[in-house]
Fold:
Amino acid sequence: MECERFWLLESVSDAQLRRSLSELLANSGRTEARIIAHLAEVEERRLHFRDGSESLYAYCINVLHLSNTEAFHRITAARIARRFPLVFTLLQKRALHLTAICLLRDYLTAENHRELLNAASHKSKSQVEELIARRFPRPDVESRIRKLPTPRATVSGHSRSGHSRSGHSRSGHSRSGHSRSGHSRSNRLCQTWPPCLRRLSKATCRYRLRSRRRKVRPRPVARMCLSLGRSSHFPRLAIASN
Structure:
């Protein structure tokens, strides 16, 4: 039954659990071998092109909804099994897994495929890699001697930092000069104002000059003083606000 909860195995005995697991794995081996055979025949007939897939890899991912790893392993095994049908038999018996087939794909030939496939049977991935390294050793890496680049002089770095510091000091002097000129300008504008607004007008005029340089809108207090200054009693403040 489809609605049966097959994952509830508390009532299954130990012997029955082991036997069922072995049967499921045997069935998975037979199923995997048939899946590889069907993929090989699909590629041989080019049926994936009829479904609008640009390759068999895209067909496995988009149509069969396999993962990237499953698609790569099964396509590689299908292509190798077409050349060497012994792969189907070993897959059905679960003597060889897909990872071992992918590792051996570049070393199998018509002369050594039987010996190499039988040697890789019932071995893990690391054991298959050791088998390949022992059967097909790679040459040692060539020894090379090259001249190291000459280190750069540290004096130039100190001189650059000195220049940068002097540049910062010069920019600081120029900024202080601008601030002094702004203060003197505000003081000159506030000399003719009444005593009640003279103290407030100095700060307002300075803020107005700073806001012009920084492009910041003046505060409400500054707006009030500037609106007062636009009257006929304070002509100089009206000139400064414009």
Observations:
- Confidence is low (pLDDT under 50) at residues 229-242.
- Residues 14-135 form one domain.
